[in-house]
Write a structure and sequence with these properties.
It is found in: Endoplasmic reticulum membrane. InterPro entries: C2_domain_sf, DnaJ_domain, Ig_E-set, J_dom_sf, Sec63-dom. GO terms for molecular function: protein transmembrane transporter activity; RNA binding. With 638 residues, this protein is an alpha+beta fold. The strands form three sheets. Strands 5, 6, 7, 9 and 10 form a five-stranded antiparallel β-sheet that branches. The protein has a three-stranded antiparallel β-sheet with strand order 3-4-8, covered by helices on one side. The chain has a two-stranded parallel sheet with strand order 1-2. The two termini are 82 Å apart.
């Protein structure tokens, strides 16, 4: 029968408490500190470009302070318990040793054991001891007899070696590292209530909260109702204005404090009037609520986004903060939501319009306005003066302006003119330096063949200094020098492009003074069929274009011979007015009209009559005839 002993001194309970605290504190500390360090790292990666609009300083929430307080208290308790463990005095029970009782060394001979027993039994016999208490003498005498029995009796010796007791296994004592107070009857209701609170309430609550939160979102962190709305309402063709209306119907703008509030009604109406006036100023169509998405939260989001596009100042600080949150959410919703749906359908025009919405969100410039408005401190009044007095309308024109004329044109900005002039060169200009359209290993393109398109994209005026690999440099060089008729050169170029490893460098930060967040400058490659405005391949996101890049895509040629028109679009996701396109004509030849391929001289001589090869060939032919005869016989039987 087992007996249980509890930690009366509290020493072993300390080890138990330390173990539990470590299992709780280490994951909790990692979770809390990782979240804060991650947010701090985001703050540390501050935009390297000019930011006219900046994020407001985040207020430290009370919950964050409470978390640190609880975590600090837990580690303080851990240190206190650890100190008690270190300074505590441990008294381990002495293990009963029959040799020590008889005053012998382990391994003593039977004669020595017998002699020691006789001597001690005479010395500590209760009838002969005068100086000791009788009870103490009796206990000592019993211990001496027990030790003698353990060392001389075979059965008792075996029991001692197995159980540490010459009398055999009597009871098993098991220690529990808990104080007795925790299992006493008077404290059991409190403990049961605590267990019920943790297991019956807290654990289901947090598991349910996690499950509810994760099931509400897609893998791209977009609310499921939002994706359903996008799937049901996106179509082709669709205008840019209708796409913005669809974007404002996202459920994200109806939660987390971004939803419409009655107290905001007056401020939103005032902003609506100002947006309508800007529409008239630019000559755009009248601004009005969406007829399809009529919720007040959707209209609020639409007003705030158009305030961003037209640079309408927002006096209400709360609405201004919400606008910044909406802009960042909108970029994510368009990129990971609407663009993904459009590319799955293969809609070229819809995809390009969505990417232009991202440009508008990043730069705070409407698609119909001049790209010069994305320069710092440039507003519509200043732009109109520059356009009327200096005939300056676009970025490419501004880059080619002489320095003196450029300074004269931007003199309307006063002391901000130098900043705007320097920013002109920070806006990239992309070009398609080379295109190769070919079937690998063939001179012509035939129906249903696999066509390879190789493109070299360059940023005008940039130097290729970031690429150190000589192999990649050679590939980039050959991409521009390989001729369209060089079949072997094109095949080698394609194989080398396939072997190239992705560059570790990323595109630079985009100059976006009216976007509070940091934005990387990326590009999209869209190859479309001009006859039906459909994507030939899925659009490719280019995230490492610093000076130049070579890209290869493959697609299947049409099944009918003829001439086909394709268009390559390089679209920025950060800058307005930097997109380019190139027309490509592909001729699919009818294979029946092609000249015949030259015959290959198959110079394989017949084996000699007496050779081993001739005998082997004869045996194979004979075996084949036998097999055919057997097949015919079986057919006849059937």
């Amino acid at each position: 029968m087992a007996q249980y002993t509890y930690d009366e001194s509290g020493v072993t309970f300390y080890f138990y408490a330390l173990t539990v605290l470590v299992l709780i504190l280490i994951p909790s500390s990692f979770y809390v500190l990782r979240a804060d360090l991650f947010s701090d790292s985001k703050a540390d990666t501050k935009a390297k470009t000019l930011k006219i609009r900046k994020k407001p300083a985040e207020k430290k929430s009370k919950w964050r302070s409470i978390k640190y307080f609880i975590l600090s208290g837990g580690w303080l308790v851990f240190l206190l318990i650890g100190y008690n463990v270190k300074t505590a005095e441990y008294t381990l029970p002495d293990q009963w040793d029959p040799y020590a009782v008889l005053g012998l060394d382990s391994g003593a001979t039977p004669a020595q054991i017998k002699k020691a027993f006789r001597k001690l039994s005479l010395k500590f016999h209760p009838d002969k001891v005068r100086d000791m208490v009788k009870e103490e003498a009796e206990a000592r005498y019993i211990d001496i007899n027990r030790a003698n029995k353990a060392l001389t009796d075979d059965e008792a010796r075996e029991n001692f070696e197995k159980y540490g007791n010459p009398d055999g296994l009597l009871t098993r004592t098991m220690g529990i590292a808990l104080p007795r107070i925790l299992i006493e009857a008077k404290t059991s209701p409190i403990l049961m209530a605590l267990y019920g609170l943790v297991v019956g309430f807290l654990l289901p609550y947090y598991v349910g909260r996690w499950w509810y939160g994760s099931s509400r979102y897609t893998k791209d962190k977009i609310l499921n109702p939002t994706m359903i709305t996008f799937f049901k309402n996106i179509r082709e063709p669709i205008s840019l204005k209708n796409l913005i209306d669809l974007l404002t119907a996202a459920e994200e703008f109806n939660t987390d404090g971004l939803e419409y509030k009655p107290s905001e009604e007056e401020a939103i109406k005032k902003l609506e009037v100002e947006v309508s006036e800007r529409c008239k100023f630019y000559g755009f169509e009248y601004f009005y609520p969406s007829e399809e998405f009529t919720s007040k939260s959707a209209f609020k989001a639409k007003v705030l986004l158009y305030c961003h596009f037209y640079r309408v100042p927002i006096e209400d600080q709360e609405l201004a903060t919400q606008q910044q949150v909406m802009i960042e959410k909108s970029i994510h919703l368009v990129h990971k939501g609407l663009v993904q749906i459009s590319t799955v359908h293969g809609w070229t025009a819809c995809t390009v319009n969505l990417l232009r919405i991202i440009q508008m969100l990043v730069q705070g410039v409407h698609e119909g306005c001049s790209p010069l408005l994305q320069l710092p401190y440039m507003d519509c009044i200043t732009y109109k003066s520059i356009a009327q007095n200096h005939a300056l309308y676009g970025l490419s024109q501004a880059k080619n302006f002489p320095e003196a004329d450029r300074r004269a044109a931007f003199s309307y900005l006063g002391d901000k003119a130098d900043i705007a002039i320097k920013s002109i060169d920070a806006i990239p200009e992309v070009e398609i330096a080379r295109t190769i359209l070919s079937v690998i290993g063939d001179r012509v393109i035939t129906p249903l063949s696999i066509v390879t398109l190789i493109l070299k994209v360059k940023l005008v005026g940039s130097e290729n200094v970031h690429i150190k690999d000589s192999f990649i440099k050679d590939v980039y060089k050959r991409a521009e020098s390989t001729g369209d008729d060089d079949i072997e050169g094109i095949e080698k170029l394609f194989n080398d492009i396939s072997k190239m490893k992705p560059l570790r460098t990323k595109s630079p930060e985009a100059l976006a003074p009216y976007l509070a967040a940091k934005k990387q400058s990326n590009w999209w490659l869209i190859l479309s069929n001009m006859s039906n405005s459909r994507n030939v391949v899925s659009p490719i996101l280019i995230t490492d274009l610093i000076s130049e890049k070579v890209i290869s895509v493959q697609f299947q040629a049409p099944n009918v011979a003829g001439s086909y028109d394709f268009q390559v679009n390089i679209v920025s996701d950060s800058f307005v007015g930097c997109d380019i396109s190139k027309h490509i004509k592909m001729v699919v030849s009818d294979p029946t009209l092609l000249p015949p391929e030259p015959e290959v001289d198959d110079d394989i001589s017949e084996p000699e009559a007496n050779s081993f090869a001739a005998e082997l060939s004869q045996a194979r032919n004979q075996s084949g005839r036998n097999n055919r005869n057997n097949f015919d016989d079986s057919s006849d039987e059937d």
